[in-house]
Amino acid sequence: MIFFWAFVIGGLICVIGQIMFDVFKLSPAHTLTTLVVAGAILDGLGLYEPLIDFAGAGATVPITSFGNSLVHGAMQEAEKHGLIGVITGMFEVTSSGISAAIIFGVIGALIFKPKG
C-alpha cells in the first residue's frame, strides 16, 4: 500500500506544479520557488513529517522535500547552536544532495556532449 500512496501523493505534487504552469502561467522558476516554499512552510507547521511517514518517497522525492530539508535542518541546529545554527543547519542537511547534483552534472557533461 505504501507504493500506492507514494504514487498518489507524488503525483498530486506534480499535478499542482503542472497546474501552476498551465492555468496560472507561472514560469518554471516561480513554480519551483513556490513548491520549495510550500514544503518549507509545511515543515515549519509540523505537517511535512507526517506526510513523509504516510507517503514515503512520494513526499521525499519531489522538490517540496528540499524546502522541508532546509527548514528541518535549520530548526534542528537552531535548538543546538542558536541563531548561527539556522544558517549552518540548512547547509549541513542539504549539502550532500546539492554536491551530488553538481558532481553528477559535471560527470554527465564530460561523458556526453552538452548542447549550447
From TrEMBL:
Stretches that traverse the bilayer: 6-24, 83-112
Pfam family for this entry, one:
SpoVAC_SpoVAEB
Its domain of life reads Bacteria
Cross-referenced NCBIfam families: spore_V_AE
Q: Does the keyword Oxidoreductase apply?
A: no
Q: Sorted alphabetically, which InterPro entries does this protein's record hold?
A: Spore_V_AE, SpoVA
Record flagged with keyword Transmembrane helix: yes
> What UniProt keywords apply to this chain's record, in alphabetical order?
Membrane, Transmembrane, Transmembrane helix
Recorded protein name is: Stage V sporulation protein AE
